């Protein structure tokens, strides 16, 4: 699809409590890049955005929650000196509700940019802008890619594969597919539904037709119910992304991450 029709925006969800980590996991060091986990994740998303060029006219939206101050400060320091910041940090003040509030916050922010293209969006009940670019986009996204900040294995190429598939199936949700540890990873890129023991999750790209349902999400369930609903309708295309399987919840997870498969 052309950039006039397919307009992609990115939302990186970084609003979790880190309740099992006993601290802010997003500031823990990635053992390969030696960067704080959130900075590592932001870098991968920015690289994907830069690679697709004109089909993305939005800075990456980073949604924070409980750890807003420390995360936004770390990112501001890491990217200081740039003439134009390639991301915006949005504070979800309702983070205690769960991941649905972060999804709503990020998407609401993106939609507000298309209504107020020349100035920073006004503070809403869901979010507060913390970092902004000087030139905001004026075009409403046709698709939004949601991903998580605590996926240490996820890389730019994984995101590009999802984007390429979404351009080929623009009316579908395009999501990541993986199997639980110990199960054989499926090679099902391009198929429309998962095997019984496969997981269909974010990172995922949602077309505009699903925006209203994303904005209606409640609680701590995320977008899985929407993916499940449209999978039954034959409107989900799954891409095998084994790197989406592994997230960081506890300090021990970093030890497991370092171990070879």
In short:
The chain is of the alpha/beta class. 30% of the residues lie in helices and 19% in strands.
Protein architecture, described:
The protein is of the alpha/beta class. The protein has one domain: Spore Coat Polysaccharide Biosynthesis Protein SpsA, Chain A (Alpha-Beta Complex), CATH 3.90.550. It has seven helices and eight strands. The protein has helices at 37-52, 68-78, 99-115, 156-168, 211-215, 224-232, 251-258, and strands at 8-14, 60-64, 87-92, 127-129, 143-148, 173-179, 198-207, 236-240. The chain has an eight-stranded mixed beta sheet with strand order 4-3-2-1-5-7-6-8, sandwiched between helices. Helix 2 (68-78) links the parallel strand 2 and strand 3. Helix 1 (37-52) crosses helix 4 (156-168). The longest helix is centred in the middle third of the chain and has 17 residues, at 99-115. The radius of gyration is 17 Å and the shape is globular. The termini are far apart. Mean pLDDT is 87; it is low at 118-128, 131-137 and 185-194.
Mean pLDDT: 87
Given this structure, which CATH class is correct?
Alpha Beta
Number of helices: 7
Task: Kindly state the percentage of residues in helix.
Answer: 25-40%
Determine the CATH superfamily. Spore Coat Polysaccharide Biosynthesis Protein SpsA, Chain A
Number of domains: 1
Rounded to the nearest angstrom, the radius of gyration is 17 Å
Main sheet specs? 8 strands, mixed
Low-confidence stretches: 118-128, 131-137, 185-194
Sequence of strands across the biggest β-sheet: 4-3-2-1-5-7-6-8
User: Based on helices, strands and strand pairing, what is the structural class?
Assistant: alpha/beta
CATH architecture assignment name: Alpha-Beta Complex
Order of helices and strands: EHEHEHEEHEEHHEH
Oligomer: single chain
Count of distinct strands:
8
Net shape: globular
Tell me what portion of residues adopts beta-strand conformation. 15-25%
What is the CATH topology descriptor? Answer: Spore Coat Polysaccharide Biosynthesis Protein SpsA, Chain A
Termini separation comes to: 38 Å
């Amino acid at each position: 699809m052309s950039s006039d029709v397919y307009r992609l925006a990115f939302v990186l969800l970084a609003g979790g409590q880190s309740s099992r980590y006993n601290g802010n996991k997003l500031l823990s060091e990635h053992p390969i890049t030696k960067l704080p986990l959130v900075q590592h994740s932001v870098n991968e998303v920015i690289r994907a955005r830069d690679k697709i060029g004109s089909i993305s006219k939005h800075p990456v939206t980073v949604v924070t929650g409980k750890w807003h101050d420390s995360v936004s400060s770390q990112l501001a320091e890491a990217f200081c000196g740039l003439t134009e910041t390639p991301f915006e940090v949005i504070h979800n003040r309702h983070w205690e509700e769960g991941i649905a509030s972060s999804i709503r916050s990020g998407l609401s922010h993106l939609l507000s940019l298309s209504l107020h293209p020349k100035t920073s969006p006004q503070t809403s009940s869901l979010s507060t802008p913390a970092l902004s670019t000087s030139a905001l986009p004026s075009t409403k996204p046709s698709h939004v890619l949601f991903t998580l900040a605590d996926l240490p294995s996820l890389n730019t190429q994984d995101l590009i594969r999802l984007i390429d598939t979404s351009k080929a199936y623009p009316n579908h949700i395009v999501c990541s597919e993986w199997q639980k540890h110990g199960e054989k990873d499926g090679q099902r890129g391009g198929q429309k539904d998962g095997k019984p023991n496969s997981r269909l999750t974010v990172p995922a790209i949602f077309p505009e037709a699903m925006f209203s349902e994303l904005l209606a999400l409640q609680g701590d369930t995320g977008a899985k119910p929407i993916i499940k609903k449209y999978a039954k309708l034959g409107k989900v295309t799954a891409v095998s992304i084994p790197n989406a399987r592994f997230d960081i919840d506890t300090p021990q997870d970093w030890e497991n991450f370092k171990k070879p498969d």
